[in-house]
Amino acid sequence: MYTISRDYRKEIVIEKSRFICSLKKVHSEAEAQEFIKAVKKEFWDATHNCSAYIVDDLAQRSSDDGEPSGTAGIPMLEVLRKNGLTETAAVVTRYFGGIKLGAGGLVRAYSGSVAGAVKEAGLAQKILLGYYSFLYDVNSVGRILNVLYQQQLFEIADVQ
User: Fold this and answer.
1) Which pTM does this prediction carry?
2) Residues in the chain with pLDDT values less than 70
3) Domain residues for 9?
4) CATH code: domain of residue 62
């Protein structure tokens, strides 16, 4: 299992159309959807803001955002899958340049945009090292949890 090593943004130009790929680490579907919404707000004047994300095996979604069906979101999602990524969201913003790319050209442009951004962002392998428990007095728990949450390198399990 992998995730991107850092949030990243990359722009490419194909046949005068600008494709801007934004990648972000996400830990839930809600966080992925908030990221997509934020990118759409940032690039409100773009022709399309296509998206794909994988949180885990069950939470995987994609959107063509007005592009012909199957030419943007699904190819982007496949790039994330082929790289074995989880907890990763991608939004590719397109500013139309006046030249139609056709279905095959769109698939290559969107998947290539995500693949290039993933390669440059780098991959971080997620490895389960073990389960740990900590015992602290009730006055220290908030401070300790804050430090642990800031690291974002693990999940905290509710063990009873």
Assistant:
1) 0.81
2) 152-160
3) 2-125
4) 3.30.230.30
